[in-house]
Predict the 3D structure of the following.
Amino acid sequence: MIEAVLAQASIFKKIVEALKELISETNIDFSEAGISLQAMDSSHIALCNLLLRDDGFKSYRCDRALTLGVNLNSLSKLLKCAGNDDEMRIFANDDSGADQLNFSFESANSERVSEFSLKLMDIDADSVDIPDMDYQAIIDMSSSEFSRIIRDLSSVGEAVSIDATKQGVKFSSAGDAGKGSILLKHQKSVDGDSALATSIEINEPVSHSLALKFLSSFAKAAPLTDRVSIHMTEDVPVMFEFKISEIGHIRFYLAPQIDD
Amino acid sequence: AVNQRSLLSFFGKK
């Protein structure tokens, strides 16, 4: 038996919205420690890693570790049936091999309870070992600013160059019709830390060129949290981390560009 | 267009 109760369905709705553009189907792992998933896009260039710790749930029970395969588009549709402030219960029986994942949504005043279930599927997907890494540069910035920059530069080109130095981070793109760039200057944290402030921890300048279409997908996680951190080292995958308050994170990894 | 390498060439398969 697994059973996880989230105080607000909206968090889970936002998580699925953040993942479904990049990933169509994924295995979800339930263990004593919580709920996690790792999945790559079909081209194996981008990867997402979700962690929801057991102690972030209102209640959490997992008698035996289970991996359940779901179609994220179907899950997204199902979650549209939940009110944002509904309490959400996810549960599955593993007595005879779970073939469905069940959801119940209870309104804040407990007057309405709805139940839905999602058929599970067998998914044969590659998973990878991601080592713990020290990065050369970590940019911590507003997630809405990140979304805006990706949207703005997508109107110019297909790739973005992210150049981090001690002074700041510059996002730039060029295309047939022209080019554009946005520079965010490093700000030391000051009193009343501005929500839009950008800070950069850096050992040495780092630059990466990345396809904007993947970053547009990653930006779908912005509604989950005010901040995103971008972790960069030359020639290794870039990691974008969106922390989900009190409960976990979504991390996206994107392979660097090939030098032709 | 941007050519990017597979993540499998960076991270080992589990």
Observations:
- Chain B has a mean pLDDT of 78.
- Chain B touches chain A at residues 1-14 (CB under 8 Å).
- The beta strands of chain B are 12-13.
- The longest strand of chain B covers residues 12-13.
